[in-house]
Amino acid sequence: MAIVLDGDKGVGLPTWTTGTRPTGITTGYTGYNTTTGQLEIYNTVNGWTTAGTAGNGYTASYLIVAGGGGGGGSDSTAAAGGGGGAGGYLTGTTTLTSGIAYTATVGSGGAGGTSSFVKGTTGNNSSFTGLTTALGGGGGGSAGGSVATGAGLTGGSGGGNGYSGNNANTGAAGTSGQGFAGGAASTSTGATTGSGGGGGSSAVGADGTSSSGGNGGAGSANTITGSSITYAGGGGGGCYTSGTKGTGGAGGGGNAGATGSNGSVGTANTGGGGGGGSANNAGAVSGGAGGSGVVIISVPTANYTGTTTGSPTVTISGSNTIIKFTSSGTYTA
């Protein structure tokens, strides 16, 4: 509509929705957005901003989860690999400044170790502009003949230790505020000896025993999307031959492999650690890969601009709009 001047009713401005905003215009154009219920102004630097708020901010909630670590490998000459640590887990609130483009980086999971003496790879970091980076989960230690090859790797949550021939490995450390340590491998010898589970965002990975692999540490439940979903569970620790295999922690952690099998992968977009491989004298087995991470931003629908890149999933929960990045992209506040 055109501008309408009425001495009794005031001034009627042009209207549009967020999806039908005018294009090819210059600084100063003003109108009413029926999607947001707000008066907005265009400038060539910041694009469309709510009138009176250009350069100001609004509160948003966030969840950032890094990629999980891969489980450790094993083969016929050794026992079993440790579970991968969960990706670092961060949640809270922040202030977004209108007109600023914020970048979400989503970390991929680490690869599993392919045999004895090959540890799982640490997951990749996730981040959102202006906030602390969530660190990738530590890779699980491999089966092998020394403390060095059996040691899990530090990360958002630490990787579990692989059984390495009666060596007293302790679990690898997690990062304060992001996750917990992985479990230790058993120091016993025998056909059922287990490795440590990977750490989770809310609990340490369990230690391996003389008869079982350690379970992965539990993750954390979060309702930012409007539903309760658990993220960042650690991978289960492997166990030699007939012993009990470790299960993945709630929140996407992968189970340790069945006897003679590869570990299970961590669930995608949860940051779950991969399960350790479990040998049975039949050849090399691999740890499972860690699950990829996720970045989720929740903003008041009245402030949501609709300007994104990278194809995030956008949903509504109550009075908020939820922007879920499963791969890297941007949101302009």
Structure, explained:
By secondary structure, the chain is mostly beta strands. The protein has two domains: 4-56 and 301-332, no CATH class; 57-300, no CATH class. Helix content is 1%, strand content 23%. It is built from one helix and 17 strands. The strands form five sheets. It has a five-stranded antiparallel sheet, with no helix packed on it. A hairpin with a 6-residue loop joins strand 11 and strand 12 (229-231). The longest helix has 4 residues, at 147-150. It is elongated and about 90 Å long. The two termini are 27 Å apart.
Provide a concise account of the structure shown.
This protein has 333 residues and is mainly β.
Largest sheet: 5 strands, antiparallel
Mean pLDDT: 89
Separation of termini? 27 Å
Q: Structural class given helices, strands, pairing?
A: mainly beta
**Strand order across the largest sheet:** 8-7-13-16-15
How many H/I helices?
A: 1
Report the order of strands and helices.
EEEEEEEEEEHEEEEEEE
How many beta strands in the DSSP annotation?
17
Radius of gyration based on Cα positions: 24 Å
Shape by Cα distribution: elongated
Note the beta-strand portion.
15-25%
- Extract low-pLDDT stretches: none
Which percent range fits the helix content? under 10%
- How many distinct domains? 2
